[in-house]
């Protein structure tokens, strides 16, 4: 499609301006996670933005809630362009602020942010009419449900005002999750001329049920959704989700496994599957990714030395780094399965008398009081040792050059001042610790911790004789981390294997990100990503991407399969691991949004046909 360039009101050269009566369609995408990270949808929207901009240019607009904490860091405000001025005036006349600007991510998509907090004076009225029109009561609902309905009210006002200034049949609105889809019921009731798409990335009820039922997928067809939504005290949220799904012209989800769940828990079979992708170019390192692995592995080595070596040491050249990460959902994310498999792996490695050591990192987020002071002190001690050794190295180097130039063959001990010898001796004595390396890097807040309890029950306490060491890091990794000092994707590049054998995972970005970074990974057949691999990748293209069978199978068998595969991985040579990394990285380009955004195009075309009886002309 040939596109014309013009100057928009916010000073950015864009495609054709859509003031008033334009023939081209334009697309709004609505989500609770625009310019604010709360879960995986943030990654979907952020990574997909460049592909959407290439297709839609400035006819694509994201709508999200204003968050005074997170939004300012990701949002650059600009003047409201002509296209939205009348709609902004409508909301401002009611006392609501319309913030227009650019999301500071690749592609810099146009964004509208609306503040649910501004509805406080009218909150009772909004919720009353929501009940009267749609029979959804918020009595007893949590604060998120109240905020979502308030946000939905603002979105409905804004889209209705834009539609009133636009030719019928030109607006497409795509909503994500129940928090973003709360506007759909009222848009349909008012017959707003917009084609509506709703995507659920995980059913709310399914997430709760999976945590409490080890045979969840067998029992899904027999679930009483109304009774269980009351049992888990999420009835208002489930009703909003169902209203959005049934009110949309096109209902979609991200995987076949979630479509099965939607059919029984939401009561509508999704019309289309929209698999999640990534902006793979952001991760691509072409021929450099092996060098990057070596660089970031060395940084992990530094952490491991500081964490373990005050108590005892092991051969870092014979050490492999495994990791798991994700939201703190002990069963759903497969943390339980991974830990049980590590216990069995530990026994097998000990029985085999191997020289290999596995350090297993658990990266998640839960409330903490602070970093463990003793663990921080050990890292600081290692840095002091490093600085001292570098000073000695410099002194020895200079004196050695001078001595050799004079024709002498000095003893190395004579090249170091007594000051540095004494300082080094004192540091060595202070460095050694009489306690075992800590399992947890932070002091946890509150009572009860499923991960810590399982680690202690399994006896994985970082004793010298154990071949599998555990590092439980209850915070996300970033460049400001006092322990690692690097971003999450750098940490992943430095590892050897990612474990994500989830029990409930509608898609699962973690193994896909590992794949894009050239790191072999484990997923499961009940994760959307794993089921997609099974459907679209023959076994010959899945080397380095292990799919653990969890559906129609006992937990014990799944643990045994994962432990066995991890043991096989430890027996690979360095050359074999490099080959796996090459294969995994090369397959990741299948998941670039340039290949997968076509599924979104199909959803928007179908919604246009159902809403207006016409094919989409972008």
Describe it:
The protein is α/β, with parallel strands linked by helices and 618 residues long. 46% of the residues lie in helices and 14% in strands. It folds into 3 domains: 24-278 and 594-612, Glycogen Phosphorylase B (Rossmann fold), CATH 3.40.50; 280-372 and 438-590, Rossmann fold, CATH 3.40.50.2000; 373-435. It has a 9-stranded mixed beta sheet, sandwiched between helices. The N and C termini lie close together (8 Å).
Number of domains: 3
Q: Please tell me the overall pLDDT.
A: 90
| Cα distance spanning the termini | 8 Å
Count of individual beta strands:
19
Shape: globular
- The CATH first-level class of the largest domain comes to Alpha Beta
The fraction of residues in strands falls at 5-15%
Classify the oligomer.
single chain
How is this fold's topology laid out?
Elements (H helix, E strand, L loop, with lengths): L5 E2 L5 E2 L11 E5 L9 H17 L3 E6 L5 H4 E3 L4 H12 L4 E6 L6 E5 L8 H12 L8 H22 L6 E6 H4 L3 H6 L5 E6 L3 H9 L3 H4 L5 H7 L3 H13 L2 E4 L2 H10 L6 E2 L15 H20 L10 E7 L9 H17 L5 E7 L4 E4 L1 H33 L12 H14 L10 E3 L5 H9 L9 E6 L14 H7 L2 E3 L9 H8 L4 E4 L3 H9 L8 E4 L6 H16 L3 H14 L5 H20 L6
Parallel strand pairs: 3-4, 3-8, 4-7, 8-9, 9-10, 10-11, 12-13, 12-17, 13-16, 17-18, 18-19
Antiparallel strand pairs: 1-2, 5-6, 6-7, 14-15
Summed up:
This protein has 618 residues and is of the alpha/beta class. It has 3 domains: 24-278 and 594-612, 3-Layer(aba) Sandwich (Rossmann fold), CATH 3.40.50.2000; 280-372 and 438-590, Glycogen Phosphorylase B (Rossmann fold, 3-Layer(aba) Sandwich); 373-435. Helix 12 (256-265) links the parallel strand 10 and strand 11.
